[in-house]
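seq:
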Amino acid sequence: MPKNSPTRRFDLDSLALDAGARDPLHLQLRDQIRRAILEGRLRPGERVPSTRGLAGSLGIGRNTVASAYDQLTSEGYLAAAVGSGTRVSRTLPERLLNAPKAGPAPAPGVGGADGLSRLSARGREIAAFGRLLGLDRGRPAPFRPHIPALDAFPREVWERLTARRQKRLPRDLFARVDSLGYRPLREAVAGYLGASRGVRCTADDIVITAGVQQGIDLIARLLIDPGDKVWLEEPGYLDVRPAFEMAGAEVISVPLDADGLDVSAAERSQPRPRLAYVSPSCQWPTGITMPLARRLELLSWADRSGAWVLEDDYAGEFRYGGRPLPALQGLDRSGRVIYTGTFSKVLFPSLRLGYLVAPPGLAEAFGAARWLADRHSPPLEQAVLADFIDGGHFARHIRQMRTLYAERQGAVVDSAHAELSGAVDIPAAEAGMHLVARAVGASQEAIMAAASGVGVEYHPISRYSAATPPAPGLILGYAAYPPESSRRAMQAWARALGGTRIGHATPAAALPPAPRPGEIIT
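struct:
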């Protein structure tokens, strides 16, 4: 401080401490003195009160003030000198003493602030894909796909198991979880898959993942080299293509016929891919179930060519014309099939737990890849799910959902026939959780416009198609919606479509949202 300058009085009025706040008093005091220094209210070289004096003025303990001063000194804001007390540091950078006020962020593309231009090539691919993810914002309404019957999920059972596990979680799980997954859950999954899906595996073959998508990502990392070719169903699952393309693969769209992926046509055009992706139990999005003869043809090709087959069994549990068909993996005798499944579509979407059955000898490699990605899934959720399966609740839920989904599918098909006959054809499906609607007496554009106008949700099949022109049709989910909700949605859609066809839309009643877990919409 210059000689003969007037002594400034420390500004006590700016300090406001709250004993009931979340932060302790010494942190509040530290932050407020630091802010006063940065804003210039306390100048370099200015003396601050003694710990005893400030504590007395503020009515707090001396140790509280000492703790705040110690932290500010260690951070370089204060400096203590013998005989002259504690002062604001004289060596603070000028840029800190005149910190600019926060202003609006620069507009994209101005001054090099365009974030996308600073991404890697792979980062730009991810960002471009991310623009497709905003299709399903907000609470869903009929007939958004991918959503199970949340109103029928046994939430009370899940909550009880969670509460019990929170009290009894093994101590070792607080320290570390195997990157392959919680062993009791892997044992439960292996037992379930063997009994209900015909999958040949043990717990040592199971890798617990954060859903099917992470399983696909791990497979791409471990089994695909740049330049490899991958067969993908056309139309097919949207998220597979970028996962393999970003691993450097060339993704080949393979057309479907009435039996699913056309192996003969694919082999003629691209005979030696590294991997083929299929969803044989219920092809997404067409709903085709691959018959036994085609499955054997695919396995024979994989054995001859040495290619991998990735079997996505996302809805294999739900078949309505007899027992569910055994998985493709159970027919494989060459170890070429990698089987994946998920609990998020069977139980509830926010449960990000899935699994893959690794080929012989490769489970540890998948575990290492999982460790590098995100170590492991949360142990509490894994333990609760293991209890849910071992207690028989999972198998019981699956049986109940088969009956419920058959009823809800029937409501959609029947109400479509009653309300939209002659304009839209929505045949029943053998399996899965969705139906495919196709225009017959109106254009697809008119059908889509009418649906959107009254809040009826759908996914166009073109979203999942790389072909030109894309495959026609609309995907309608039915699992999440009680029959009365589906009927009202169909009636509103029919009124809007009728109005569109004569040049104006008829107002329709607002549609009910999808139920939250534990909530039933009537």
